[in-house]
Amino acid sequence: MDISANSAAEHCCICLERDDIVSCCFRDKIRHIPCNCNMYCHKYCFEKTNTNKCMICKEEYLVSWGQDPNKPKKKNHCKIFKKYIKKKYILGKISLQKQNRRFEKTIRKCMTRLYYPDFGNCCLDMIAAATYSIIVLVVCIITVITCLMVGGYYLNIILCTLLNMWDNTYFCLLPTSDGMLYILGIFGFVLLMTNIGCCYCCCGYHLEYFLHLKNLIHQLKPSLLNHHHKSLD
After folding, report:
1. Domain made up of 1-73: CATH architecture
2. Cα 45 to Cα 20, 53, 168, 208, 228, distances in angstroms
């Protein structure tokens, strides 16, 4: 339960302050202790005590910090499912990264077997080589059609916006069965790649700097909070 700094009823039972502990980037709010005893405190002050047993009744805590046992939260099955997925596939032994690597390794192995067939039979080797060629051809065709489609819609939307042609239902937002869409895609995809390259050249450095600064703040977060708490002491 979040207790705002303007509350007139609850205050920290350890430092006797009613205001939240505020640092440059973080706010340590006053919360109910994880026990039935009607007491509130900051997390920083709470960690100075025995975090396993209540400081008042000396009973073990039944819930974690920030939860009020007098007002139990309803189970959020969506969050429980997300935590299960995160624990099993992201933080567990079978991570998504390992699964992707395993899938990539399997695809590469299959394509290598098809590219260098050695089944001991001439007909099987020919079928494997033909299958490899068909797969590569299909993938190339799908990739080219997708690029032309994206580029066609990109240029089509730009032309309709600049020339104010949205009333023309034939030209604007062409259907995928129209050949004009793919003709526009030849120029539109080149224009799209050029715009992405220009945006990256202009803003890529600032984006990398921002991400680096964000990671640095995330790494310095514990030390900044501890330093601020020590300064309060």
Report:
1. 2-Layer Sandwich (3.30)
2. 11, 14, 67, 37, 13
